[in-house]
Design a protein that fits this description.
heterodimer, A: about 325 residues, mainly alpha, MetI-like fold, 2 strands, about 70% helix, B: about 290 residues, about 75% helix
Chain lengths: ~325, ~290
């Protein structure tokens, strides 16, 4: 019949591997059509990905306030960041605190929910819906709701704590409890991650469990030796996405931290009582779009970018030890 | 013989154990679900309370009277120009979603179905940008739009989607790859051009995946806060997310009105969820297994 896909592929491969073979008109035609199709993305990559990355690095070595052209300052922005700006370290501490607790706790809770939901029991669709719904709530609406629930006076949570004989807490209005409040709020939204886990759980062939059961493995052993290894690629995926996202946490801290007053624009960048919710992105936003210190903010962006790259690469390195890929999954 | 008789007494106890297991799982799932629903219940119930019942002790689990007028008051409040905000949000979400769906399906088709030279390299680059943190492109992107004079408009929010998104391209490509080649070959022999094949034959076949992209991007843009916060400065141009925040800064203590407004902003997403539940679940599951 006509030339099918593999023929086309073989032709193009042959052409690619052997420069002596004259490029056929079909290959040229495919090139033209192919690049025409992916053209929007090539432009998108160049204009909205590559150029901004390169420019971020460039601006990070300059002083730039939009009004005046960028002025070269070498490494001064970085020097200032690391030696003269205590707010940087405060925001790094807050962000690390938030990430190191909310990410593992969120993963654990999502995994637990997924394991519970991965059962042939009635009403599973109902539970799935309930756990997932909070991930739909717009962050602004969700944060306002939690500001109400965690009100330091007679908020729902405090009344509940009192009923259990526990002390009331200041939550978002307390420098000690504002970060736990943010973490608590983030845990309400683990439903999406739980569904990702559930998808992974349902891909595990039932035969493995049946075989293990015949061999006398108990539930805990099955979890340890079948579920966790086979789910590890999904755990790894959720871990990386979780870290990247929580290092860039912004909206919840902006809204919860700004409610101390201060009006529309500046209010949100306060970062809560004693700056206890001053997250890295909040400080970056403040420097960039309130003070228009775009060079300095670019240095902050580059630093976060490099830290995230290092963490991601380190995790990929460790993943060789604990993430299990079936041979046929390596596409 | 002996082994068979041994099996008989063990069976019922296993069933009992399984049944107990199922019951305890139900209790655990149900208990957690209840806890999960309490904030929602509080949102709804506070939106219907008179202000003086918001923080009363003992707690008011059922407000009396039910003040439906809170909704009227919230939606007609000059600090929350609802219909203006709604049409802005719809404009942003729809235009961005049209852009991202069009561009990503065209690009994904190119990656999946046309063997052009440099394709694998380009796709590798695309995958590498999947995890690119937004922070590193934020400021230069702002400056691009500043130079174009588009800061203060929706331009910076709706133009980039027309140039693709790595995740959606990846997702749609996976689907295009599963379609049989015979379909396109036949059309090519009949002389149909590639764009026609893409638009008339292939795109309709991956409709479920396209719906996933539509639903996800709508959700993302509807909830987007930081983008509008950075680029918009005129109250009348705000989308609902930013409008809700502006409302809060002016009516911080009127929790009942704030919750009414918050619920109204959330409601469209919940409706979309129940209409497109399958797409939601499918999309999220794919995120884990294919990503």
């Amino acid at each position: 019949m006509m030339m099918d896909q593999t023929d086309i592929k073989q032709t193009s491969n042959r052409v690619l591997s052997n420069p002596l073979i004259k490029i056929s008109s079909l290959t040229l035609r495919n090139d033209m059509i192919g690049y025409a199709f992916v053209l929007p993305w090539i432009i998108g990559l160049l204009v909205f990905r590559f150029y901004p990355i390169v420019a971020s690095f460039y601006y990070s070595f300059t002083e730039y306030s939009v009004l005046q052209p960028a002025r070269w300052r070498g490494l001064q922005n970085y020097q200032e960041m690391f030696t003269q700006d205590p707010l940087i370290w405060q925001s790094v501490y807050n962000t690390l605190y938030y990430t190191l607790i909310s990410v593992p706790l969120g993963l654990l809770l999502a995994l637990l929910l997924a394991l519970l939901m991965n059962q042939a029991i009635r009403g599973i669709g109902f539970y799935r819906t309930i756990y997932f719904l909070p991930s739909l709530v717009p962050p602004v609406a969700g944060t306002l709701l939690w500001l109400l629930i965690l009100d330091p006076g007679n908020g729902l949570m405090n009344v509940g704590l009192e009923a259990l004989g526990l002390p009331r807490l200041g939550w978002f209005k307390s420098p000690v409890w504002s970060k736990p409040a943010l973490i608590l709020m983030s845990l309400w939204g683990v439903g999406a991650a739980a569904l990702i886990f559930l998808g992974g759980l349902q891909e595990i062939p039932k035969v493995f469990y049946e075989a293990a059961e015949i061999d006398g493995a108990n539930a805990l052993q099955r979890l340890r030796w079948i579920t966790l290894p086979l789910l590890s690629p999904v755990i790894f995926f959720n871990l990386i996405i979780g870290i990247i996202n929580s290092f860039q946490v912004f909206t919840s801290a902006f809204i919860a931290g700004g409610s101390a007053g201060g009006g529309f624009g500046g209010g949100g960048t306060i970062g809560g009582p004693l700056g206890s919710m001053l997250m890295y992105m909040l400080l970056l936003y403040r420097n960039a779009f309130r003070y228009f210190q775009l060079g300095y903010a670019s240095a902050m962006a580059v630093f976060l970018f490099l830290v995230l790259i290092i963490i991601t690469l380190a995790l990929i390195k460790t993943s060789e030890v604990w993430v299990y890929y079936e041979a046929d999954q390596r596409r | 013989m002996g082994t068979i008789f041994d099996e008989i007494p063990r069976r019922p106890s296993l069933h009992l154990k399984q049944q107990l297991g199922a019951t305890s799982r139900h209790l655990l799932l149900g208990g957690l679900a209840l806890i999960w629903m309490i904030p929602f219940y509080w949102l709804v119930i506070t939106s219907l309370k008179p202000l003086d019942q918001v923080f009363t002790r003992p707690l008011r689990w059922v407000p009396d009277p039910l003040l439906w007028s809170n909704y009227v008051e919230a939606l007609t409040n000059p600090a929350f120009p609802f219909f203006r905000l709604l049409s802005n949000s719809l404009f942003y979400s729809l235009l961005s979603t049209i852009g991202v769906t069009l561009s990503c399906s065209i690009v994904a088709y190119g990656f999946a179905r046309i063997p052009f030279r440099g394709r694998d390299f380009l796709f590798g680059v695309t995958l590498a940008t999947l995890m690119l943190p937004g922070v590193v492109t934020l400021i230069p992107t702002y400056l691009i739009f500043h130079k174009l004079g588009l800061v203060g408009s929706y331009g910076p929010l709706v133009i980039p989607p027309f140039f693709g998104d790595a995740f959606y391209i990846f997702l749609l490509r996976q689907f295009f790859k599963t379609l049989p080649w015979e379909l396109t070959d036949a059309a090519r022999v009949d002389g149909a051009n590639e764009l026609l094949i893409f638009w008339k034959i292939m795109l309709p076949l991956i409709r479920p995946a396209v719906l996933v992209v539509i639903v996800f991007n709508f959700l993302y843009t509807w909830n987007d806060f930081m983008g509008p916060l950075i680029y918009l400065n005129d109250n009348l141009k705000f989308p609902l997310s930013l409008g809700l925040y502006a409302f809060q800064t002016k009516h911080e203590t009127e929790w009942n009105l704030m919750m009414a407004a918050a619920l109204v902003v959330t409601l469209p997403l919940i409706i979309i969820f129940f209409v497109a539940q399958k797409q939601f679940i499918e999309g999220i599951t794919l995120t884990g297994t294919k990503g």
